[in-house]
Amino acid sequence: MGAGVQSGSVTNEAAVGLTPSIAGTSDWLELSATLVKGADSNDWTLIAELMNLATTNLVLSHTFTGIAPNPGFQDDATIYGTINSSRSNEVSQTTGRTIDTFGVVAGFIPPPPAVATLIGGALGNGDFSAGGTTPATQTYLQTTNWFNSQGTGSDEDFNLTFDSQMGGSTDPNNGTVLRGAMVFNNRTTVNDTGYTVVSSAQVFSVSYDFGAGGNAGNWDGDETNRTFLFTTDQPVDGALTNASIVVLGEELYAVDRAADGQWTKHAETNLYTTTADDIGKTVYFGVEFTQGTGLNLFPRIDIIQLQVTVPAAPVGPLLSVERNGASLDVSWDSETGSNYQLQTNTDLTTTNWNDQGSAVAGDGATQTNSVPLSGDELYIRTEVQ
């Protein structure tokens, strides 16, 4: 199309009939545009459609009418320059031809990595505020989601949460529920909020407020706070013991009372990254404080947030298509270790994607496969395996 386009842009979603907004859409999207010739050369129509390929739902469809092409852009002299018309007809058979329809696919918009909060705030009782303000001191038995895995079930009677010395926590509930956990020396505290691993390369991260209470002179510099991710073949409850815990990944925060002050926000962005062997496992979170050889210390912990980042699905390669008689030669740059299945569909409102030939193993070079031409519309994609 030339410079004669009369209506070719929109400035907001409402202008293309999109209600409600697609802000926050994270599935793969495909944008297609089809030009259709009208009654004369000054009455072309452009049909633009955006489809969610994960759900096969048509997200939007808008029609622009009254589009006029620029004839000067399409004549032989402009296209071929000094090449005469008979030669252009011989080579590409364009002389005297009229385009009735023309389709173009813009490609995929990959989703961003998905981040899920597993423990945080009221979720998993990450702020230790469940149960309200009373009692001010709660045992493990009285504290939702948290258990003592240090010994037997009777250890659940030990105190866990307190409302004293919590003024330095960033807990937004501090105006109403001034409570955090006291992580006693060598006492392992676990959370029963489980998460089932769905893929490799999932990254777990953790952050929390740490309150190094008491006189700074009581801290010797050999104290650590350990956070860890684990699996177990036993229920995570008051009967769980450390002997049944299999640690997948951990982080040791070396407490520096002099530099960090009484309260500090600590974070670890890669507590653990999953592998293929972890798929299907249910993982849990635990924390343990070790004070070394100094005086008895009673630090607080609050605002625990455990998150997992799930990587986005891989984006298929860019396809190059060239006509070869009654077929189309489809080429793409492959990656070693990936298999590519070419598929076609004649209607994007359906999920009827048909395999074309066998899957092709990637070797780092350009791969080519052919598909037969059929019908008025044909959509092509590669499925990366």
Architecture overview:
With 385 residues, the chain is mainly beta. The chain folds into 3 domains: 13-109, no CATH class; 115-310, Galactose-binding domain-like (Jelly Rolls); 320-384, Sandwich (Immunoglobulin-like). The protein is built from 4 helices and 23 strands. It has helices at 71-74, 76-80, 85-92, 257-260; strands at residues 29-36, 44-52, 57-67, 101-109, 114-119, 138-139, 146-148, 159-162, 180-182, 188-196, 203-211, 224-232, 245-254, 263-273, 282-290, 300-310, 320-324, 327-333, 339-345, 354-355, 360-361, 366-372, 379-384. Strands 5, 6, 8, 9, 11, 14 and 16 form a 7-stranded antiparallel β-sheet that branches. The protein has a 5-stranded antiparallel β-sheet with strand order 7-10-15-12-13, with no helix packed on it. The chain has a 4-stranded antiparallel β-sheet with strand order 3-2-1-4, with no helix packed on it. A hairpin with a 4-residue loop joins strand 2 (44-52) and strand 3 (57-67). It is elongated, with a radius of gyration of 31 Å. The chain starts with 28 loop residues before the first strand and ends with a strand. Residues 1-11, 79-85 and 97-106 have low confidence and may be disordered.
